[in-house]
Inverse folding.
């Protein structure tokens, strides 16, 4: 388990959820490996301001490449940016793989992709 910012150091490309099938594959992998209820995705709020957009990020924080989010599957009343500290996106297995925002400092499991992400134009 790692915080979001610590994950980006060993994992240059975390899971960028392109569709529901991809989210399901992440969940199945996490369940098989006993990852628990939350799994970090590669999504985060572009700026610390709680109204900024969310993007997919690849690479180390500070040297990242951002990609537009074409797929989202937010849980009810999410993102809520609770206490204005929730900047990073996790997949919430206890809620049917819905997306949720959490503080980036939380230590939860993550999945690295073994390929570079090439979003469709």
């Amino acid at each position: 388990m790692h915080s979001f910012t610590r994950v980006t150091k060993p994992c240059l490309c975390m899971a960028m959820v392109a569709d529901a099938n991809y989210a399901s594959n992440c969940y199945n992998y996490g369940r098989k490996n006993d990852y628990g209820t939350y799994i970090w995705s590669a999504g985060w709020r572009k700026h610390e301001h709680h109204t900024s957009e969310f993007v997919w990020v690849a690479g180390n924080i500070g040297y990242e490449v951002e990609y537009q989010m074409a797929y989202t599957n937010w849980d009810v009343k999410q993102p809520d940016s609770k206490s204005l500290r929730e900047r990073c996106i996790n997949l919430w297995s206890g809620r049917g793989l819905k997306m949720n925002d959490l503080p980036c400092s939380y230590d939860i499991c993550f999945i690295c992709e073994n390929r570079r992400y090439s979003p469709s134009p």
Remarks:
- The helical segments are 4-7, 20-32.
- The first strand starts at residue 38 and ends at 45.
